[in-house]
Amino acid sequence: MRIALYLKHFPAAGGPVRGGSATAVDGLAAGLAQNGAEAVVLCEGASRSSAAAAGGYRIECFRNTGRTHRSFTVARELRHYAADWLRGRPGLCVLNGMFHPSCFALGRSLRRHGVPYVAQPLDPYDRWMFRRNPHLKWPYWFLFERRHLREARAVQLLDRGHEAPLRGLGVQTPVIEAPAGIAAAAEPPPAPRRQPEAPSFAFLGRIDAYNKGLDLLVDAFARMEGRGEQRPTLSLRGPDWGDRAPLQRRAESLGLSDRVAFLEPDYARTPVQILAEHDVLCLPSRFEGFGLVALEAMLAGRVLLVSERAGVARHVLASGCGLSVPPSVEGVAAGMRAILERRGGWAEMGRRGRRYALEQLQWKNVAAGALASYARLLS
Questions:
Q1: How far apart are CA 73 and CA 64, in angstroms?
Q2: Per-position DSSP letters for 296-321, written without gaps between them
């Protein structure tokens, strides 16, 4: 079976894969290749290039100098390549992105050529997502996004729980569940931090206060109690999406300057290596498709505190490696206190999370399930 995966900003020619969407596409493509599928990732950039990825799939990048996310323009050569590569053969194209005009445009082109596509939004269409820039999202929803989802052969979700808001918005397209995954771990997990050290909480990802709930995290952390050297610390590390300065000012106004650190991205180390410096990963997102960093924390044998709206939440609960909380100041603060009360069991919780991730959420297994779903759609 041939599977094409389109992500407009995927790095061309085997460049470094960064960011949740690119990492998810890379992992799924590699998993599909491991299961015998012929996989290609389609993207757009400054020049035409073709490269073999380490994961066993190909990357085809097409020249499109006007490649902003808000443009409906898709490279002409890409449209023809996708149609010719898939037409007349068992296969389909997975269009990755939410509210991306290029996904809508490419989907329309594929339909005209008789090629089926699957829409993978990567985030849930819940009320929290629509509350940010509603004056832009609601018109686009009624004009383009809903039509894009309705005309898809299926909508691929990272968690089955994201189906309900989709149905509430009038989209009855069949749903495929394909969670995020991890590559097999080649190294043993980092050793747990020594208990005498002050508890260390961390967030790793883009500094986007609304989506990731970082304002909630800072306010909740202000409610943590402790004395002397045992007072918990909090680190927030990642690329700034415009919210670092306001969050820093908020932390200062709450008297947290000595316990909350805002750190630059560190691309020289893996997320597992970075998370090894901390005890607990916090992901208090208002909305979250899955939360790949949570899987990295599980591989690192760390404890997790995640939003109940993240697709990874049910896996955290099933493995016993952490807690799921409402994305509110009260919910996050209560979760942090509960985590601290279980400090003596952190090492065992970390072992459970790592074991679960390796047994249940490797990309090869995730892709096998997705491939079976694609076969049912095409039949």
A1: 8
A2: HHHHTT-EEEEETTBTTHHHHHHHTS
* Amino acid 111: pLDDT: 95
Residue 41, beta-bridge partner list: 5, 59
Helix%, strand%, coil% for the chain, nearest 5? 45, 20, 40
Domain ranges of the chain: 2-181+362-378, 200-360
Give the pLDDT confidence of 194-215 residue by residue, as tens digits.
766 889 999 999 999 999 999 9
Residues paired with residue 63 on neighbouring β-strands, in sequence order: 45
pLDDT higher for 197 or 175?
Answer: 175
Angstrom CA distances, 59 to 78, 216, 245, 350, stand at 12, 39, 37, 36
> For residue 190, which of 282, 271, 273 has the smallest C-alpha distance?
273
Secondary structure (3-state) at 237: strand
Q: Give me the residues paired with residue 91 across strands.
A: 2
Q: From 3.100.10.10, 3.40.50.450, 3.40.50.2000, 3.90.660.20, which CATH number describes the 200-360 domain?
A: 3.40.50.2000
Cα Rg of the chain, angstroms: 21
- C-alpha–C-alpha distance, residues 206 and 212, integer Å: 8
Which superfamily is assigned to 2-181+362-378 in CATH? Glycogen Phosphorylase B; (3.40.50.2000)
Query: Residue 219 pLDDT more than 90?
Result: yes
Q: Which two tokens stand for residue 208?
A: 């986007």
In the chain, which residue ranges form alpha helices assigned H by DSSP? Answer: 20-34, 76-86, 101-112, 127-130, 134-140, 146-150, 163-168, 209-212, 214-221, 244-253, 271-275, 292-299, 313-319, 329-341, 346-360, 363-378
Q: What is the pLDDT of residues 260-284, one digit of tens each?
A: 999 999 999 999 999 999 999 999 9
pTM score of the predicted model: 0.91
The DSSP secondary-structure symbol of 8 reads T
Record the tokens describing residue 180, joined without a space.
């995020």
- Mean pLDDT, residues 375-379 taken together: 92
Cα dihedral value 206, 292, 128, 317, nearest 10: -130
355 exposed, middle or buried (CB, 10 Å; 0-12, 13-18, 19+)? middle
- For residue 29, give Cα distances in angstroms to 13, 178, 234: 15, 13, 35
